[in-house]
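Section 5: illustrative case.
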């Protein structure tokens, strides 16, 4: 039987950077989808509508998913464990 070699563990910061890259890419795709939808169903796109759609959709996706990524980073990096241990009251 062949042994399967496990991948070396990645650092939490490398995982976080990778997640943010994926989130930004998904945000761009969501903006493209929103602009396509607006152009297909509306009378026409004005420059103000395009700028507002780009800013609103992209930053909403980035903020919402980025906060989840920050929570995962906090857990993987050990910051949550440090806070839990620092605030734990010892039984007497």
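Designed sequence:
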């Amino acid at each position: 039987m062949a042994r399967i070699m496990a991948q070396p563990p990645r650092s939490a910061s490398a995982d976080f950077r990778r997640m943010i890259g994926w989130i930004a890419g998904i945000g761009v795709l969501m903006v493209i989808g929103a602009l396509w939808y607006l152009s297909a169903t509306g009378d026409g796109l004005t420059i103000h509508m395009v700028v507002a759609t780009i800013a609103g959709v992209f930053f909403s996706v980035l903020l919402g998913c980025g906060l989840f990524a920050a929570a995962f980073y906090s857990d993987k990096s050990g910051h949550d464990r440090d806070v839990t241990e620092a605030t734990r009251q010892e039984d007497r």
